[in-house]
Amino acid sequence: MLRILFADDHALLREGLRPFLEQIAEDTDVREADALDAALACFKGSEPPQLILLDLNMPGMDGIQGIARARKTYPDAKVVVISGYFDKRIITTVLKAGVDGFIPKTSSGRTLRNALRLVLDGERYLPTNLLESGSSTLALAALIADGTNDGPWDKLTPREGDILRLLVDGKTNKEIARVLGLNEVTVKGHLRNAYRKIGANNRADAVRIALQVRR
Fold this sequence. Notes:
By secondary structure, this protein is α/β, with parallel strands linked by helices. The protein is 47% helix and 14% strand. The strands form 2 sheets. It has a 5-stranded parallel β-sheet with strand order 2-1-3-4-5, with helices on both faces. Strands 6-7 form a two-stranded antiparallel ribbon. Helix 1 crosses helix 5 (109-120), helix 7 (158-168) crosses helix 9 (184-198) and helix 7 (158-168) crosses helix 10 (203-210). It is elongated and about 55 Å long. It starts with a strand and ends in a 5-residue tail after the last helix.
């Protein structure tokens, strides 16, 4: 059984995302809380959670101090931050605090589910739908992860980064073309180039690579 602790002070968000959390594994035990203290007591007296999803700004978090408390209480759990506020500074701060992933609240439920599956498989997840200085957040993710700026993501053009982001969100080539105002042939061409640059063999492989930043 996969044990998940989901802590967020917005009940509607918890209600909306819970079905996607329950889809991560065939058998799940999802326990919810609206503040950090209540969250850390959710599994008291029972088997600890394997995955913890924390709202960065809910009561009791006190910034990254809340992350440290969650780590101390459940040292073997994967810890992922979910937040409506995100920029390079925030992402860098939470990564230095040792989280296994950072997910914007604007992400789709499907993206959340897939991202958490990768985290459980030992990968670190960063958002792919942020664009900074004309390059995709994939480049930012690589920069934060290994301290360099010469990774494969820096070889992507801004358009290739946009297309990969939409690919990760589950869009078909036709849907990507409509969103970006392109034709499908152009989208396919950009995807071929992106696959080659990031070392992906196919569409599924590209999604897997795009969703992960290795430790």
